[in-house]
Amino acid sequence: MKKVTALAMAAVVAASALTGCGSSSTAETTAAATEAKTEAAAADSTEAAKEDGKTYNVGICQLVQHPALDAATEGFEAALKDKLGDNVKFDLQNASGDSATCATIINQFVSNDVDLILANATAALQAAAAGTSEIPILGTSITDYATALDIDNWTGTTGLNISGTSDLAPLDQQAAMLNELFPDAKNVGLLYCSAEPNSKYQATTVKGSLEDLGYTCKEYTFADSNDIASVTTTAAGENDVLYVPTDNTAASNAEIINNICLPAKVPVIAGEEGICSGCGVATLSIDYYDIGYKAGEMGAEILMDGKDVKEMPIEFAPEVTKKYNKANCEALGITVPDDYVAIEE
Q1: What is the pLDDT of residues 181-233, one digit of tens each?
Q2: What's the 3-state SS for 132-187?
Q3: Which of its termini does the chain have fewer beta carbons within 10 Å around, N or C?
């Protein structure tokens, strides 16, 4: 009797196991089918957009021309072309580093009733936010949207007609990089443009991390390119290492910074690769083309699928890389660890 009972129970367990496997298999098949349908729908949507004859007009306001912002714009345009083909037209305007010119460019876009605005850099984003509350705006190369737009109680979305991508690499990791390369340094100068609120945000945050690591930090700010040489000279004379955040004025004048710091034997840790190429020794780098491309994909969702920009969270770079400026490191006798990648010239 016990044997019969045991056999019966085994049969029940076996049947349950088979049922469980069948459910798992069915779930996996259903998930795969759903994913395939989603991809097919996206492809159909792209093809439909290319074939429906509608042309989307996109205005691009870029604060200044330098490699990082150029790469972000290039990525943005590439993504929209991939999605919309010839059905998208771009009006690319460069403000040559002038905030007032950004406002003029944005007003022109609003008058032309463009379908979407890309604001490349903080001053461009602020001008776009002031210029229209109706046209969808995407930012890129923005470090912190809450700081740029003066938003309290940040939740990840702006609640405005604005979203986009951030160029922020983890600031505590940037401080750790400086400490890894210069553990014996004592004084660190934080060099940035006072007119760029996101530069102030980065400098303040990094300062806290560096002070926790035992460094003495002091901020050195320049108003524009006219006083960058004098401020950099003072900073280089008073510090063992300088930190320069992702600052557009610094990026446009990296050669000036380099011509002062390199002869003075003062290394510069940079917030992004373009500045590091011009005057730095190392950086925790993101790919600006990638964040621009992601912004372009977001733009396609707005234009093609009618997605509400107000509900779109800010996106970040998928990964960061430790990079170094080989020429400057050699000139200063700095040997970097094996996990650093040389910046391509």
Answers
A1: 999 999 999 999 999 999 999 999 999 999 999 999 999 999 989 999 999 99
A2: CCCCCEEEEEECCHHHHHCCCCCCCCCCCCEEEEECCCCHHHHHHHHHHHCCCCCE
A3: N
pLDDT band with cut points at 50, 70 and 90 for residue 51: low
The residues with which 283 forms a beta bridge, in sequence order, are: 270, 323
Q: What confidence category does residue 50 fall into, taking pLDDT thresholds of 50, 70 and 90?
A: low
Tokens found for residue 310: 């107000």
Residue with tokens 């605005």: 117
Residue type, 22: G
Instruction: DSSP letter for 217, please.
Output: E
Is a pLDDT exceeding 60 seen at residue 19?
no
Contacts of 173 (CB under 8 A, 6+ apart): 284, 320
Provide the 10 A C-beta neighbour count for residue 100: 10
- Residue 17, amino acid: A
Residues ≥6 apart with Cβ < 8 Å to 177: 269, 282, 283, 284, 322
Report the predicted TM-score, pTM, of the whole model to 2 decimal places: 0.73
List the 162-166 sheet strands across, edge first: 88-94, 56-62, 116-120, 137-142, 162-166
Domains and CATH numbers, the chain: 51-167+287-311 (3.40.50.2300), 171-285+321-342 (3.40.50.2300)
Interior angle at CA 298, CA 293 and CA 303, nearest 5: 120
